[in-house]
Amino acid sequence: MTEIALNFSQQNAQRSWSFMTQNNIDRYEVRSGDVWSRDGVDRERSESASRFLMEAGKTYQLEFSVRIEPGALNQAQWLGIMQIQSTFDDGEAGHSPPLGLELVGERFQVTSRYSMAQITGPTDMRTNIQYTASNNAERDRWYKFQFIVRFDPFGNGHLVAIQDGQTLLDYKGPIGFNDLLGPYVKMGVYRAATPETMAVQFTDIHFGVRPN
User: Residue 93: its pLDDT value, please?
Assistant: First the structure.
């Protein structure tokens, strides 16, 4: 893998607890009402967003370790820990990301999405739940994830997800959106509004391009 700098910027409510980095650990915390200035009040977030845009036809690898801090159980209707999000074309409304590591309740889930439409509308997107853990994630434990992905909404996509050395899925088929510009990495906490506090930590983040 040829490593590429992600060059993160922050998207959060600019609270003292929203984001901190120390000793190679990035910490994100979201409390009830923590709304980024560009979001509506129905969603809360503290995320890092990469400035690097992926290119169509190339295979990328993202790896990191993540730890969910002890606290109240997740009650959010949806919650993303990592997403590779589309760069929306002019005229496109926002939509869910083509690849996400999510928490459904307390269980990890990997979801992919695609659309072949030039301008994706509400009925164009297709969703594939690629993997749902059979057990709840343990709080205060490090999990190492690796994602190998080639985005192609027309059928030549590829996605491999690995957790702690175990392959969770190896999918070939459509993944991603028919966009002029490529997608980009985001990580942290992004969720539907909910009362409980959630904090996650990331370390050992590596990203790069692989030979096809």
Answer: 85
Between CA 130 and CA 139, with CA 135 as vertex, the angle to 5 degrees is 110
Pick from 97, 89, 6, 100: which is nearest to 53 by CA?
6
What's the CA gap between 174 and 93, in Å, rounded?
Answer: 21
User: Which pLDDT belongs to residue 54?
Assistant: 98
Tokens 């893998």 sit at which residue? 1
**Extended beta strands in 57-183, E state:** 59-68, 79-85, 99-104, 107-115, 126-132, 142-150, 152-163, 166-177
What is the reported pLDDT for 56? 87
Number of alpha helices (DSSP H) and beta strands (DSSP E) in the chain: 0, 15
Task: Note the pLDDT of residue 43.
Answer: 97
Q: How does residue 122 score in pLDDT terms, banded at 50, 70 and 90?
A: confident
pTM of this prediction exceeds 0.90:
yes
Domains of the chain: 2-210 (2.60.120.200)
* Residue 6 Cα to chain centre, angstroms: 14
Give the span between the Cα atoms of 51 and 118, in whole angstroms.
Answer: 23
Residue with tokens 């910490």: 27
**Contact residues for 26 (Cβ-Cβ < 8 A; gap 6+):** 19, 20, 48, 187, 201, 202, 203, 205
pLDDT, average across residues 29-55: 97
Distances (CA, A) of 179 to 33, 69, 124, 183, 208: 32, 36, 13, 9, 21
For the chain, where are the alpha helices, taking DSSP H only? none
